[in-house]
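Record type: monomer structure entry
Structure origin: computed from sequence
Chain ID: A
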Amino acid sequence: MKFVIVFVALFGLALAAPPQSSVDAVITRSESVVEPLSYNYAVETSDGKSASEDGHIENQGSEDEAIAVKGQFSYVGDDGVTYSVSYIADKNGFQPQGAHLPVAPVA
């Protein structure tokens, strides 16, 4: 009986798994530098995805010390359109920008 339960559970997991694409993506470019007070990285894959980010410490040693990050990522959606997002993340929060993202009305 336990075997049947395990078999049914595994069969259900296999059916729920996302379909595998016919071509697996590979990393075509990968760069990174990590230092004590800053970092950056960039990566691209063969399926059109890319991401890069730079981060550093602002106001080091003060009470206002914080990390500031600037980056971007892009990917090709299921509709064939390339979506790109650039962002800043700092003491003012995460601030994304992209042509497909809604923009708050000006008050």
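Annotation 1: Strands lie at 27-34, 38-45, 50-58, 66-76, 82-90, 93-97.
Annotation 2: The helical segments are 2-16.
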